[in-house]
Design a protein that fits this description.
The protein has 238 residues and is an alpha+beta fold. The chain has helices spanning 2-26, 28-32, 53-59; strands spanning 34-35, 61-63, 67-72, 75-78, 87-90, 93-98, 104-106, 113-126, 135-150, 159-160, 167-172, 177-180, 186-192, 199-210, 213-225, 230-234. It has three helices and 16 strands. The strands form five sheets. The chain has a four-stranded antiparallel sheet. Strand 11 and strand 12 form a beta hairpin. It is globular. The N and C termini lie far apart (74 Å).
Protein backbone atom coordinates (compact mmCIF):
# COMPACT_ATOMS: atom_id res chain seq x y z
CA UNK A 1 0.00 0.00 0.00
CA UNK A 2 2.82 2.39 0.89
CA UNK A 3 4.56 1.59 -2.42
CA UNK A 4 1.33 2.40 -4.31
CA UNK A 5 0.99 5.76 -2.53
CA UNK A 6 4.63 6.55 -3.30
CA UNK A 7 4.14 5.65 -6.98
CA UNK A 8 1.05 7.89 -7.24
CA UNK A 9 2.91 10.76 -5.55
CA UNK A 10 5.85 10.44 -7.95
CA UNK A 11 3.46 10.35 -10.95
CA UNK A 12 1.63 13.51 -9.81
CA UNK A 13 4.90 15.36 -9.19
CA UNK A 14 6.11 14.36 -12.68
CA UNK A 15 2.93 15.78 -14.26
CA UNK A 16 3.28 19.03 -12.30
CA UNK A 17 6.92 19.38 -13.37
CA UNK A 18 6.00 18.76 -17.02
CA UNK A 19 3.23 21.39 -17.04
CA UNK A 20 5.49 23.88 -15.23
CA UNK A 21 8.16 23.41 -17.90
CA UNK A 22 5.69 23.92 -20.78
CA UNK A 23 4.26 27.09 -19.21
CA UNK A 24 7.71 28.48 -18.43
CA UNK A 25 8.74 28.03 -22.08
CA UNK A 26 5.56 29.72 -23.37
CA UNK A 27 5.88 32.75 -21.11
CA UNK A 28 9.66 33.16 -21.08
CA UNK A 29 9.66 36.17 -23.40
CA UNK A 30 6.94 37.96 -21.47
CA UNK A 31 8.37 37.27 -18.01
CA UNK A 32 12.07 37.61 -18.72
CA UNK A 33 12.05 39.89 -21.70
CA UNK A 34 15.02 40.25 -24.03
CA UNK A 35 18.46 39.39 -22.71
CA UNK A 36 21.00 42.13 -23.42
CA UNK A 37 24.15 40.00 -23.42
CA UNK A 38 26.26 40.72 -26.50
CA UNK A 39 24.08 43.61 -27.66
CA UNK A 40 24.79 44.31 -31.31
CA UNK A 41 23.31 46.59 -33.95
CA UNK A 42 21.35 44.70 -36.58
CA UNK A 43 22.97 45.44 -39.96
CA UNK A 44 20.94 45.77 -43.16
CA UNK A 45 21.59 42.66 -45.23
CA UNK A 46 21.82 42.75 -49.01
CA UNK A 47 20.43 39.24 -49.48
CA UNK A 48 16.73 38.62 -49.95
CA UNK A 49 14.90 38.73 -46.60
CA UNK A 50 13.57 35.47 -45.18
CA UNK A 51 10.10 35.96 -43.75
CA UNK A 52 9.30 34.55 -40.30
CA UNK A 53 6.44 32.28 -41.31
CA UNK A 54 4.39 32.46 -38.12
CA UNK A 55 4.64 36.24 -37.79
CA UNK A 56 3.60 36.86 -41.40
CA UNK A 57 0.89 34.22 -41.80
CA UNK A 58 -0.72 34.85 -38.41
CA UNK A 59 -0.25 38.57 -37.75
CA UNK A 60 0.38 40.44 -41.02
CA UNK A 61 -2.12 43.26 -41.69
CA UNK A 62 -2.61 46.00 -44.27
CA UNK A 63 -2.64 49.49 -42.76
CA UNK A 64 -3.51 52.84 -44.39
CA UNK A 65 -4.01 50.92 -47.68
CA UNK A 66 -0.33 51.38 -48.52
CA UNK A 67 1.61 49.14 -46.14
CA UNK A 68 1.74 45.62 -44.76
CA UNK A 69 3.10 45.31 -41.24
CA UNK A 70 3.64 42.47 -38.81
CA UNK A 71 5.18 42.08 -35.33
CA UNK A 72 8.09 39.80 -34.50
CA UNK A 73 7.25 37.34 -31.68
CA UNK A 74 3.92 38.91 -30.74
CA UNK A 75 2.61 38.41 -27.21
CA UNK A 76 -0.81 39.96 -26.55
CA UNK A 77 -1.97 40.76 -23.02
CA UNK A 78 -5.58 41.48 -22.10
CA UNK A 79 -6.10 44.86 -20.45
CA UNK A 80 -6.42 48.56 -21.15
CA UNK A 81 -3.36 49.83 -22.97
CA UNK A 82 -2.43 53.24 -24.30
CA UNK A 83 -4.02 52.53 -27.68
CA UNK A 84 -7.56 51.85 -28.93
CA UNK A 85 -7.60 48.07 -28.44
CA UNK A 86 -8.67 46.10 -25.40
CA UNK A 87 -5.30 44.39 -25.18
CA UNK A 88 -1.62 45.29 -25.20
CA UNK A 89 0.72 44.06 -27.93
CA UNK A 90 4.22 43.08 -26.79
CA UNK A 91 6.79 42.27 -29.46
CA UNK A 92 10.51 42.27 -30.28
CA UNK A 93 10.19 44.35 -33.44
CA UNK A 94 7.87 45.56 -36.19
CA UNK A 95 8.37 45.07 -39.92
CA UNK A 96 6.75 47.18 -42.66
CA UNK A 97 6.43 46.39 -46.37
CA UNK A 98 5.68 49.25 -48.77
CA UNK A 99 2.96 48.09 -51.21
CA UNK A 100 4.15 50.58 -53.84
CA UNK A 101 7.68 49.21 -54.20
CA UNK A 102 7.81 46.02 -52.11
CA UNK A 103 10.55 47.40 -49.87
CA UNK A 104 10.84 45.76 -46.45
CA UNK A 105 11.94 47.71 -43.39
CA UNK A 106 12.45 46.67 -39.77
CA UNK A 107 11.60 49.50 -37.38
CA UNK A 108 14.25 48.92 -34.67
CA UNK A 109 17.88 48.14 -35.45
CA UNK A 110 18.86 46.98 -31.96
CA UNK A 111 17.40 44.82 -29.21
CA UNK A 112 14.09 46.29 -28.06
CA UNK A 113 11.10 45.24 -25.96
CA UNK A 114 7.99 46.76 -27.53
CA UNK A 115 5.40 47.29 -24.80
CA UNK A 116 2.61 48.35 -27.17
CA UNK A 117 2.04 49.80 -30.64
CA UNK A 118 -0.96 51.29 -32.45
CA UNK A 119 -2.00 53.55 -35.30
CA UNK A 120 -1.54 57.28 -34.76
CA UNK A 121 -5.08 57.92 -35.88
CA UNK A 122 -7.96 56.48 -33.85
CA UNK A 123 -11.02 57.14 -31.73
CA UNK A 124 -11.97 54.99 -28.77
CA UNK A 125 -14.81 55.14 -26.28
CA UNK A 126 -14.16 54.04 -22.72
CA UNK A 127 -16.21 53.86 -19.55
CA UNK A 128 -13.84 54.40 -16.61
CA UNK A 129 -16.53 53.64 -14.05
CA UNK A 130 -19.33 51.12 -14.35
CA UNK A 131 -21.98 53.69 -13.49
CA UNK A 132 -20.25 56.70 -15.07
CA UNK A 133 -20.53 58.28 -18.49
CA UNK A 134 -18.62 57.09 -21.54
CA UNK A 135 -15.45 59.01 -22.38
CA UNK A 136 -14.35 59.61 -25.97
CA UNK A 137 -10.60 59.71 -26.62
CA UNK A 138 -9.05 60.62 -29.96
CA UNK A 139 -5.57 60.86 -31.47
CA UNK A 140 -4.72 62.07 -34.96
CA UNK A 141 -1.10 62.35 -36.09
CA UNK A 142 -1.77 60.84 -39.50
CA UNK A 143 -0.43 57.65 -41.04
CA UNK A 144 2.20 56.99 -38.41
CA UNK A 145 2.64 54.24 -35.84
CA UNK A 146 2.92 55.11 -32.16
CA UNK A 147 5.30 52.73 -30.40
CA UNK A 148 5.96 52.35 -26.67
CA UNK A 149 9.15 50.44 -26.04
CA UNK A 150 11.85 49.63 -23.53
CA UNK A 151 15.20 50.31 -25.17
CA UNK A 152 17.26 50.78 -21.99
CA UNK A 153 17.89 48.36 -19.12
CA UNK A 154 16.84 50.94 -16.53
CA UNK A 155 16.70 48.46 -13.63
CA UNK A 156 20.06 46.87 -14.58
CA UNK A 157 18.89 43.25 -14.46
CA UNK A 158 20.37 42.31 -17.84
CA UNK A 159 16.99 42.17 -19.61
CA UNK A 160 14.63 44.49 -21.44
CA UNK A 161 11.16 43.79 -20.11
CA UNK A 162 8.05 45.25 -18.44
CA UNK A 163 10.11 46.26 -15.40
CA UNK A 164 12.05 48.86 -17.38
CA UNK A 165 10.91 52.43 -18.08
CA UNK A 166 9.06 53.24 -21.31
CA UNK A 167 10.30 55.36 -24.19
CA UNK A 168 7.92 56.87 -26.78
CA UNK A 169 8.48 56.61 -30.54
CA UNK A 170 6.67 57.58 -33.73
CA UNK A 171 7.39 55.61 -36.91
CA UNK A 172 6.68 57.08 -40.34
CA UNK A 173 6.64 54.14 -42.82
CA UNK A 174 6.49 56.41 -45.86
CA UNK A 175 9.72 58.16 -44.90
CA UNK A 176 11.07 55.01 -43.20
CA UNK A 177 11.87 57.18 -40.19
CA UNK A 178 11.78 56.23 -36.51
CA UNK A 179 11.52 59.30 -34.28
CA UNK A 180 12.40 59.14 -30.59
CA UNK A 181 10.03 61.62 -28.95
CA UNK A 182 11.45 61.90 -25.44
CA UNK A 183 14.66 63.67 -24.42
CA UNK A 184 17.46 61.74 -22.74
CA UNK A 185 16.61 60.52 -19.21
CA UNK A 186 12.87 61.19 -19.75
CA UNK A 187 10.33 58.36 -19.80
CA UNK A 188 6.64 58.06 -20.59
CA UNK A 189 3.97 58.09 -17.89
CA UNK A 190 0.78 58.91 -19.77
CA UNK A 191 -0.52 59.86 -23.23
CA UNK A 192 -2.98 62.76 -23.27
CA UNK A 193 -5.76 62.40 -25.82
CA UNK A 194 -8.14 64.79 -27.63
CA UNK A 195 -5.45 67.21 -28.79
CA UNK A 196 -5.74 68.85 -32.21
CA UNK A 197 -4.59 67.18 -35.44
CA UNK A 198 -0.87 66.34 -35.69
CA UNK A 199 -0.26 66.87 -31.96
CA UNK A 200 0.84 64.06 -29.63
CA UNK A 201 0.85 65.21 -25.99
CA UNK A 202 2.16 63.14 -23.09
CA UNK A 203 3.08 63.28 -19.43
CA UNK A 204 6.74 62.36 -18.95
CA UNK A 205 9.16 62.19 -16.05
CA UNK A 206 12.92 62.53 -15.74
CA UNK A 207 14.98 59.91 -13.92
CA UNK A 208 18.72 60.08 -13.31
CA UNK A 209 20.62 57.09 -11.95
CA UNK A 210 23.87 58.15 -10.29
CA UNK A 211 25.94 55.18 -9.10
CA UNK A 212 22.84 53.16 -8.21
CA UNK A 213 21.01 56.06 -6.57
CA UNK A 214 18.01 57.17 -8.59
CA UNK A 215 16.84 60.77 -8.57
CA UNK A 216 13.21 61.27 -9.60
CA UNK A 217 12.04 64.63 -10.95
CA UNK A 218 8.51 66.14 -11.03
CA UNK A 219 6.37 65.31 -14.09
CA UNK A 220 6.57 67.40 -17.26
CA UNK A 221 4.48 67.66 -20.42
CA UNK A 222 5.96 66.82 -23.82
CA UNK A 223 4.22 68.22 -26.92
CA UNK A 224 5.17 66.70 -30.26
CA UNK A 225 4.05 68.23 -33.56
CA UNK A 226 4.11 65.34 -36.03
CA UNK A 227 3.72 67.61 -39.07
CA UNK A 228 6.66 69.87 -38.19
CA UNK A 229 8.61 67.16 -36.32
CA UNK A 230 8.97 69.62 -33.43
CA UNK A 231 9.20 68.74 -29.72
CA UNK A 232 8.35 71.11 -26.87
CA UNK A 233 9.09 70.14 -23.26
CA UNK A 234 7.08 72.01 -20.62
CA UNK A 235 8.69 71.78 -17.16
CA UNK A 236 8.14 73.39 -13.75
CA UNK A 237 4.41 72.64 -13.80
CA UNK A 238 3.87 73.43 -10.12
Amino acid sequence: MEKLKLFILIFVLALVAMFAYILSKSWFFFDKGIELKEEETIKEEKKEPSFPKDSVSEHAKVIWKNFIYYPIELNSETGEGFGPEKFINHAKNLTFINLSNGKLKKVFKKKTYIWDYFSGEFTKVTKPYSEGEEVKETLDIGNKMVILAMTEDTNHDGFLNQKDKIKLFVYDPLEEELISILPEDYYLEKILYNSRKNILASVVRKYINDNGKEEIFPPSVLIYDAQKNKKTLVEDLK
